[in-house]
From TrEMBL:
It comes from the Eukaryota. CDD domains: Glucosylceramide_synthase. This is Ceramide glucosyltransferase. One of its GO terms (biological process) is glucosylceramide biosynthetic process. It is a multi-pass membrane protein. The chain crosses the membrane at residues 15-41, 304-326, 332-350.
Length: 437
């Protein structure tokens, strides 16, 4: 078919042409980046990798810091994964920390420590109020008392494979410019398919599809830091050099993970790197409301942190990106709008399916008797998976609109307002569990 643009002499025709040109470029970039991300995931997380540092007596020491707050899904298994690292026993320690002695996480933490007397581990009770960020307040004492320079800040609700620490140390040794090592966050619905909730399925789908491919692609290209704080390693000496107050310098912010990576990158001249490991977070019983509120929270956090990327986020999603591509191809080549739109969504869904299978096969996990069921692979991807994918895609833009319309975020039952300078202030305690995000 001929292009519908017949005459570019008119101002309207010229505007139409330029709009279509911009749309075509954007469509090509997004499709290429998305497929590149799928390729990275498929080739990176499809097998296990040997670690040199795991068996070397000269391996550097690492302090594993795990801040606790309340009871997480599969918390016992997640905490224990730090104790089961395949690494010289005298070269790592585990420091668990909790702000309140009455927190139910204390019992779980003590039980895990008692089961592994061979590991140098301790529990710190009581934080320091250095700012509105409760995670930083919880970590300060662990950060300052850690025995080793390399610190692994590992959230309490994620599980890591036994070789993760060794491969992370290998990554530091691969280049003197590497100053932060992190791992791909993946959510896993730990319920049986017939019992899983909408929120858990949506969380699992988003983190394993849309988030995972962009996170992997951006980190592979490595033109800017892109870090989520589920599982990060960095040297305390490097951070103290770019932030004299150490972790305290980030206590006024919610997104301390990104800002730490950005400081090491821009001020320290360092680089970040993903290893071949995943930080697997089991999710269970999550409501759709909780999922939506969590997505709203992180979009609100990002809109002052990476403003340009946040503003264009809707047109990185499948439904709008497909429409943009269909408009451009119809304009220049006369290809049916409906054909391009449907074909794009089909490719998008198929590539997400392939990527999801790659991540949830757990092929990069070293299995042991301690490996929990949610880390042993679950490829039960029937029609329900496609329904979840469609719902996730349909709700992406409404979630973004909701997020852009406000500045308040809820975190650990507390309400914060995000300011333009990315600092936060606590508004008031938020006790209602249904608003937790």
């Amino acid at each position: 078919m001929d292009s519908p643009i017949r005459d570019n002499d008119t101002a309207l025709g010229t505007l139409h042409w330029y709009a279509a040109a911009v749309c075509l470029v954007w469509y090509i970039i997004m499709m290429s980046l998305g497929l590149f991300g799928v390729w990275v995931v498929k080739t990176t997380y499809g097998r296990t990798y040997h670690s040199r540092s795991a068996s070397s007596p000269d391996s550097p020491g690492v302090s594993i810091l795990r801040p606790l707050k309340g009871l997480d899904v599969e918390m016992d298994a997640c905490l224990e994964s730090a104790f089961l690292q395949d690494y010289p026993r005298d070269k790592f320690e585990v420091i668990l920390s909790v702000a309140d002695a009455r927190d139910p996480a204390v019992t779980v933490a003590k039980d895990v420590i008692e089961r592994h007397p061979e590991v140098n581990a301790r529990l710190i009770i009581g934080g320091e109020d250095v700012g509105p960020n409760p995670k930083i307040n919880n970590l300060i004492r662990s950060y300052e008392s850690a025995k080793f320079d390399i610190l692994w800040v590992l959230d309490s609700n994620v599980w890591v494979s036994p070789g993760t620490l060794g491969r992370s140390v290998d990554a530091f040794a691969s280049s003197p410019r590497i100053q932060l090592v992190h791992h791909l966050p993946v959510c896993v619905s730990s319920d049986a398919p017939e019992d899983s909730t909408w929120g858990a399925r949506l969380e699992e789908n988003y983190m394993s599809c849309a988030h995972a491919k962009m996170y992997s692609a951006i980190n592979k290209v490595a033109i800017a830091p892109c870090v989520m704080g589920k599982s990060n390693l960095f040297r305390r000496s490097d951070l103290n050099r770019v932030a004299p107050g150490g972790l305290t310098d980030f206590a006024q912010f919610i997104a301390e993970d990104h800002l730490i990576a950005d400081a090491l990158w821009t001020k320290g001249g360092g680089r970040t790197v993903l290893t071949e490991d995943c930080a697997r977070q089991p999710v269970r019983g999550t409501s759709a409301t909780t999922y939506f509120l969590r997505r709203v929270r992180w979009i609100r956090v990002r809109k002052f942190m990476v403003t340009a990327a946040t503003l264009v986020e809707p047109i990185t999603e499948s439904l709008l990106c497909a429409a943009i591509g269909a408009f451009a191809l119809r304009t220049f080549y006369g290809i049916s709008f409906l054909f391009t739109y449907v074909a794009t969504l089909a490719v998008w869904c198929a590539s997400d399916y392939v990527q999801f299978r790659a991540l949830h096969s757990c092929a990069n996990v070293e299995y042991s008797p301690y490996t929990p069921a949610f880390a042993r692979g679950n490829l039960n991807m029937g029609p329900g998976w496609f329904v979840t994918w469609i719902v996730r895609e349909l709700t992406a833009v409404p979630v973004w609109i909701t997020a852009m319309a406000g500045q308040g975020v809820t975190w650990r039952d507390r309400l914060f307002r995000i300011k333009v300078d990315m600092t936060v202030e606590e508004i008031r305690p938020l006790d209602a569990r249904e608003w937790r995000a």
